[in-house]
Specification:
629 residues, mainly alpha, two-stranded antiparallel sheet, 28 helices, 1% strand, disordered N terminus
Length: 629
């Protein structure tokens, strides 16, 4: 879908003076007033600060009422328009609400409001707003304010109680900034159009954000630049992608590599490989249960919703991880909300009162409680390995840096295909073969006979059967499989697994190029020839002989290739001569962000360019070639 050329980004409207409104309407609480403001914002589709005739017509349309004539709409607005602007402002809207609560204001807008207010969260008044949780909007806005505090390119703080978060996502700057907070260096900040001059600049920002989100492991489904351009009407999409970004940011430290002390969470008979396979959420639950056991409690949790509602788990957990500041007094309260407030007062003492409010604990909001537990873990893991514990070989955690980068690239690529099961760690999840069978089925539909797959393999023999099927299918697809068998997958031979996964990624890329090229087979030499011709067309005299060509290190070949594809996407004042290591790094970072800005999904890291990693550079040129075709 194309973004309308006349589309403009709504400027945030100053929040109302709730204290003054509370004094004027003493029968309404602050919570009530903020709820009314949210309802008003849902009617005010462009967040201009008032409801005009077109927006009022949308209200009627979306509740299934006959849309009044233009004259009738004008008359309805006039009933409440005390300032003569021809629209209904929030103060006038509040006067109508007050009349309704007193039993007056019948008919017209007030009548349809009665129907519409209960549907705001379901459909929205623009016909495109879907259900979203206000508490998540509020929590995410507060987290963004804390994370990006002082950022000169953003108009912070965001008002958590209104829809400013959504309007601020319309230009793409905020989401890109949050991606960098979650995974520093993913977005080259000079590539962001921080003051977009029109829809083209905003679409570039949205492309950059969505493709960068994929590159850090977000699942981006059914969302494109137009959706972010219309983020005020599609808040559920904004909250969905923002939650994934925040979750990645919060769970960075929940891993054996970041916190080796997590080995104390191993159960009898488990190995490090078993712990590596666990998603971060499961590790957090084990962490909570570990501290509950140490507290002498029989309680355990299996989720971040129903199991924490009564606040007992939080009370015991926080008393274990920070006993000098967090007591057990919350449990003296019989009222669940008061008990939850006691928990959060303890959290405040240790700087962790974030994400949740008492009602979020009592109601068991799983997202916000996961975020709260992650915050506690990040600041107070309180883990130590007993001196008498048997020694564990942690050598397998010390990966070669290049292997670690390849693992991340391949894992994020596989997850972008929506492989089931989700890949948490390429090596940790490898042994039963399921992630590879899922990947093969995605890149060549029908290649896997799922009736022959052990979907819940418990024995080594069953895992070997799956792994052997992986190897067989790869050979049938003529992938280059040398010296690798099923046992290598089960035993997690990292070098061979990386090589095999690369063959899958390469197959997928070349098949896509073949598809967009009208069925013509494409090989690496075809890609090199195409790239050389493209850079020559813009006057660049550098040619490469292979993906290992040392001249690729400077990044200039790629910058000129991008110039040939999208000449207006590059600010040449940013591009360096590529003479020093710092210059090469700048060009590499900028190159990847420009590629993402023009719509390419690329998973490699900037280090892959300056180190001239041929596999990763093949994916970059292939993505640019596919984009051009």
């Amino acid at each position: 879908r194309e973004v309308p050329e006349d589309s403009t980004s709504s400027m945030p409207v100053a929040p109302p003076d709730f204290d003054a409104l509370k004094a004027k309407y003493p029968s309404f609480s602050l919570v009530d007033l903020k709820k009314f403001k949210s309802e008003f914002d849902a009617f005010d589709e462009d967040l201009s600060g008032d409801i005009d005739a077109n927006e009022l017509a949308s209200v009627f349309k979306n509740v299934g009422e006959k849309v009044p004539s233009a004259a009738e709409l004008k008359q309805m607005i006039a009933q409440h328009d005390t300032t003569g602007t021809g629209t209904i402002e929030f103060g006038e809207f509040m006067a109508m609400i007050d009349e309704l609560h007193k039993g007056g204001a019948e008919g017209g807008f007030s009548k349809v409001y009665q129907k519409a207010k209960d549907r705001i969260k379901i459909e929205g008044m623009g016909g495109a707003v879907h259900s979203f949780a206000e508490e998540e909007r509020d929590a995410f806005a507060e987290h963004i304010n804390a994370t990006l505090e002082g950022d000169k390119d953003l108009a912070l703080p965001i008002d958590p109680s209104g829809n400013q978060l959504f309007s601020m996502c319309q230009d793409g700057v905020l989401i890109n900034k949050m991606i960098n907070a979650a995974q520093p260096g993913t977005v080259f900040e000079k590539a962001i159009n921080v003051k977009p001059k029109g829809v083209h600049h905003r679409v570039e920002n949205h492309n950059l954000a969505l493709n960068s989100a994929k590159a850090i492991g977000c699942t981006v489904v059914n969302i494109g630049p137009t959706d972010l351009e219309e983020s005020v009407k599609k808040p559920h999409l904004v909250l969905g992608i923002m939650w994934q970004i925040i979750k990645i940011q919060l769970l960075q430290k929940v891993s054996l590599r970041e916190c080796p002390e997590l080995v104390v969470l191993l159960k009898d008979g488990e190995t490090l490989q078993d712990l590596l396979k666990l998603p971060p959420e499961d590790i957090l639950m084990r962490w909570v249960n570990h501290h509950l056991k140490n507290a002498g409690s029989d309680r355990t949790i299996k989720n971040f919703s129903g199991d924490i509602k009564d606040s007992e788990v939080y009370t015991l957990l926080m008393n274990q991880i920070c006993p000098d500041k967090c007591d057990k007094s919350p449990m003296s309260k019989s009222d669940m909300t008061q008990r939850a407030e006691g928990v959060l007062q303890n959290a405040d003492k240790i700087g962790c009162r974030k994400f949740v409010r008492p009602r979020d604990i009592v109601n068991g909001n799983s997202k916000l409680n996961l975020a709260f537990v992650a915050t506690l873990f990040n600041d107070y893991p309180a883990l130590s390995v007993p001196e008498d514990a048997p020694p564990l070989d942690l050598a397998e955690l010390e990966e070669d840096e290049g292997d670690s980068r390849e693992e991340r690239v391949f894992r994020n690529w596989m997850n972008s295909l929506h492989v089931d099961p989700f890949v948490n760690n390429l090596f940790g999840d490898a042994s039963d073969g399921l992630i590879f069978l899922g990947t093969l089925d995605k890149i060549k539909a029908g290649s896997v006979n799922w009736k022959m797959v052990n979907k819940k393999p418990k024995r080594v023999f069953n895992k070997v059967e799956n792994a052997n099927q992986v190897v067989t299918i790869c050979k049938d697809m003529r992938l280059h499989m040398v010296n690798i068998g099923g046992n290598d997958i089960v035993e997690t031979n990292k070098k061979l697994i990386l090589g095999m996964t690369w063959q899958m990624m390469r197959f997928h890329l070349l098949e896509f190029l073949k598809e967009v090229g009208g069925g013509k087979k494409v090989e690496e030499q075809d890609m090199i020839k195409w790239a050389n011709e493209k850079v020559a067309s813009v006057g660049y005299d550098g040619k490469i002989a292979s993906m290992r060509d040392p001249s690729l290190k400077s990044g200039l070949f790629f910058m000129n290739l991008l110039k040939a594809i999208a000449p207006d996407a590059i600010n040449w004042d940013i591009v360096t001569a590529g003479q020093t290591e710092e210059d090469c790094a700048t060009n590499a970072k900028y190159c990847l962000s420009v590629a993402r800005k023009i719509g390419c999904t690329v998973f490699l890291l900037w280090e892959d360019i300056v180190e001239v990693k041929p596999k990763m550079l093949t994916t970059l040129i292939g993505s640019l070639m596919a984009h051009k075709k």
